[in-house]
Write a structure and sequence with these properties.
It contains seven helices and no strands. The chain is mostly helical. The longest helix has 59 residues.
């Protein structure tokens, strides 16, 4: 084999290696952006829900003036949710918000005239719709985080990531242990 042939083979090998490295790096970039987009979707929905909550509180306050402790709890949960900077903080704030909102709706059960109020019904439907969107955004985020984390940890992409040191694994947006217990416990049916 001539020197020209050897040079061509070496160049082809080098080009293939560079193309593989570029492909692995680009796949990390795409997954990272997908997770960023999913996190953005979650924050948009959390912000929308946080904007709805003062309206719910004001509507309920008109009927249940003596429930100040519950209103304070919802306000504090809303503030924590708005101030969350990390996935873990957002998940903790989200769990506190779920508890606070459930207390608001429990109050509504005690006031039939509140339950019949059209503003309250509309707000309740909007909150439920937002909760559904938050759940969907969570699933999308967690799926992206799983894909990114797997790619970062598997060979040979982990070598590329270690060379550039740019991509980090992401935390999952998880449900609190108390909520997991509710989900995992099957409902009892008695006749």
């Amino acid at each position: 084999m001539s020197i020209g042939g050897i040079i061509i083979i070496v160049l082809v090998i080098v080009v293939v290696i560079i193309a593989m490295i570029a492909g692995m790096y680009n796949s990390l970039v795409k997954l990272n952006e997908r997770v960023n987009e999913a996190w953005s979707d979650i924050t948009v929905q959390l912000k929308y829900r946080a904007d709805l909550i003062p309206n719910v509180i004001e509507t309920v306050k008109g009927y249940a003036k003596h429930e100040k402790e519950t209103f304070q709890m919802v306000t504090e949960a809303r503030t924590a949710a708005m101030g969350a900077k990390t996935v873990k903080q957002a998940a903790e704030a989200e769990n506190a918000m779920q508890g606070a909102l459930s207390k608001i709706f429990a109050i509504a059960e005690a006031y039939p005239e509140l339950k019949a109020n059209e503003n309250f019904k509309t707000l309740q439907m909007q909150l439920q719709d937002t909760e559904d969107k938050i759940q969907a955004a969570r699933r999308f985020y967690n799926s992206g985080a799983k894909d990114l984390n797997t790619k970062i940890k598997t060979f040979p992409t982990n070598i590329i990531n270690n060379m550039v040191g740019h991509f980090k694994t992401r935390d999952y947006f998880e449900v609190a242990e108390t909520e997991k217990a509710k989900i995992e416990k099957a409902p009892e049916v008695k006749f």
